[in-house]
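Re: export button greyed out
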Amino acid sequence: MMQNNFDFNHLLRRGVAEVIVEEEFIARLKNGDKLRLKEGFDPSSSDIHLGHMVGLRKLRQFQELGHEVVLIVGDWTAQIGDPTGQSVTRPVLSYEQVKSNAETYMQQFFKIVDRSRTEVRWQSEWFGEFSLADVLKLTGRFTIAQFLAREDFNKRFTAGKPITLTEFIYPLLQAYDSVQIQAGVEFGGTDQKFNLLVGRELQGMVGQQPQQVLMTPLLVGTDGAHKMSKSLGNYIGITEAPAQIFGKVMSVPDNLLMDYFTLVTDVPDAELAEFRTEIENGANPMALKKRLAREIISQLYDKSAATAAEDNFVRIVQNKETPAEIPEFRIIPGTLSIPGVMLDAGLVKSKGEAMRLIQQGGVEIDGNKITEPNYPVANGAVLKAGKRRYVMLVE
Amino acid sequence: MMQNNFDFNHLLRRGVAEVIVEEEFIARLKNGDKLRLKEGFDPSSSDIHLGHMVGLRKLRQFQELGHEVVLIVGDWTAQIGDPTGQSVTRPVLSYEQVKSNAETYMQQFFKIVDRSRTEVRWQSEWFGEFSLADVLKLTGRFTIAQFLAREDFNKRFTAGKPITLTEFIYPLLQAYDSVQIQAGVEFGGTDQKFNLLVGRELQGMVGQQPQQVLMTPLLVGTDGAHKMSKSLGNYIGITEAPAQIFGKVMSVPDNLLMDYFTLVTDVPDAELAEFRTEIENGANPMALKKRLAREIISQLYDKSAATAAEDNFVRIVQNKETPAEIPEFRIIPGTLSIPGVMLDAGLVKSKGEAMRLIQQGGVEIDGNKITEPNYPVANGAVLKAGKRRYVMLVE
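Workaround output, generated via the alternate export path:
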C-alpha cells in the first residue's frame, strides 16, 4: 500500500540539497506512484560513515512511504579500477575481494535501509555481456562539449590536466544503470549532480520516464573543514563501537552541531529550532552534543548502548580528563601487545612496569579492565593507565 | 627473400605526402625487416577509383620488395554505422551487404595489389568479442585534450558543433587494429594523419615496435577542384570500361596532368621531367593526356585495351566532335531502352525514328553498332546517332 500523505518539507527538503525536478517529483508522489529508488555503491571500499548515512536515512524515509530501494553493486567498474590512475590496465580488485566488500557493505547498509524493501542488483548482470556495439550506441548519444561543461572536467581541461576518455564513459555507465533498473529517483551527493542528470537524460532518450534526482548535502567531518571521508580520517564509522562514536561526536566542532542534528537524526524540526535558540542564547553545547551522540548511537545500536557510552564518557570527564585533553597515539588497530603500546606511548618506563600495572588491575581500555597483555584495540579506543594517565589509540 | 636494394626517392618520396619517421623507416628497410603493410577499408562503399590507386600502387611497390600487405576489412565498424549520423542506434549495413561489398572491393583491390602477398583480416575477429573492460582499457590510455588537438575536431568544437564521444573512440579502434595485426607500416591519406599516429602511439604503449606511417597525397578529381570522390562525381573508377576511362582522363584539367603521371603511373621521373619541359615550352598537352590514359588503362586492363580505347577516342575526335563538346545526358547505368534514351536526350523526334536508325545501323555506343533496342549502358558511354549527333550518358 502506497501512502501518499506525507510531509513535503520533511521528505524533500530536510537533509536534501537539491531536487530535480521538484514539481514533477511531488506530482509522482501525490499520484501514489511506487518509485524505484536507485542507490549505487563502489565496492572498492566497504565502510559506511555518517556522511553516507545522510542519504541512506533519506532512502529509509521513502521506504516507509512504500517505495523500493534498488541497490546497485558497482562490482563491474570496481574490477576495472580507477580510470584516473595508472592501474587501468589490470583489475585492481579480484572478484572475491569485490564480493567480500559488498557483503561487508551490505551488513552496514541494512543497519539503516530496510532490507525487505530493497532489491540488490549487480552491474555485471548487464555490463558483463556489454559489447563494443553497445558502448558505441551509448557514446553516440552524448557530445564532448556536454562533458566538458561539467565543472570539474572543465577546470581540469582548462588547467591542462589530463582527462582520459574513460572518465567520460563512466558517467554513461552510471546512467545506463538507471535505464537497466528503470530508476524512478536516483540519490547522490551534490558532487554527483552531473552524473545523475546524465541518467535522467539517457532514460528520456530510450523512452523511459526520466528519473527524479535527489541530492543530499555533503556532511563536514569531525575536523570541521572537509567533507567527511575515510581517507581524510575525519569520519565516524557506523560500525565503530558506541564509546568511540560517543567520543568522536563530542569532538565535532560546535558550529556543525545543528547540521549533524538536521542530517543524521530524527529530532523534529520544532525541537531543533529550540536548540538553535539555546545556542544563540549562549548555552554550553555540551548537553546538546551528548544528545546528538545518543541519537546517533540509538539508531545504530539501541538506547541502552547509547546510555552506556554516555556513562563511560562521563566517568572519563569526571576524572577531570576530557577527551579533548587526551593525547593521541598512533597504532594499527588489531590485537596488540599492550605493554609495548604503553611503553611506546610514554605511559610507563618499561614493559615490566606495564605488566605489573595490568596484573594489579590498573589498565583499562574503553572502560574495561584488561588482564592479558594482548588485547584487541579498535581505532579511537581510550587506554587508561593508573588513575590519571590516558591515551587515545588512533589509526 | 627480402630485397634491400631500393630507390628511396621512388619508394618513400614519389607519390608520398609524408613519412613518419623517415629515418626509422629507412633503417628498417635497410635492415631487411619484412614489414606488415596495413591498409584498411570501410566496406560501406566498395568502389575503388584513381584516388585510392595512389596508395594501392605504393603497397604494390612495397610488395615487390618482399613486404606483405594486411588488408583490414572494417566489417565491424561498418555495421555500427556512421557515428556522426543519427543512424547510430541501429546497424546501417547487414552482414550480407558488408560481405558482398567486401568481395566487390577485393576484386578491384587485387587488380593493383598482389593477392599472393596479402593477408585479409576482418575486424570482427577481434571486435566481435570486445568487452566493455577492453574498451575502458583502451580509452584509459588517451586524453580528451589529445583528441581535441586534432584539427577537424578542434574546429568543430570551437564552432560549437557537436562531436559525439563515439567519434573519439573510432580512432582508437583503428589504432587497435594496428596492435592486433602488429602493423609495421600503416598507409593512409594525409587526412588520416591523426588516426595513423594514434596507432603508432598505442603500439608503443603495449610494447610493440611503433608502426611507420606513410601518407599519400589526395588526388584532385576530374573537376580540377576537389579531392576525387565518388559522391562528388569527379572520379575515374578502376572498373570503368577502357573507353570511359580514356574519355575521363582526356577531361582532366591540364594543370593536373603531371600530378596524375606522378601518382598513378610508373613513367620514370626522368621522362616526367621531359614532359614538364615540353609543357613549359608550350606543347599541346593532348599527346601527353593520351599517354596518361594509355598508361592507366594498361595497368587496369592491358596494352591492347589501351590502344583500342585510344582508337575509339580518335575516331570521335576525327569526326570533329571532341569529347568536351559532347553534351551530357543523365541516366541510371544498366540495360536501357535506347530509343527512349534517344528521344529524351533530344536526338530523335520519336521512338519510331530511333528504332529505324538502329535498324539501319546508324546508332553506336562507345563505337559499337547496336542492333537491339535494349543495350547495357555504363556511366560515361558515348552514344552516336547518325553521323554527327553525340551524347555522353552519365550518371
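The longest strand of chain A covers residues 36-41. The button fix ships in the next patch.
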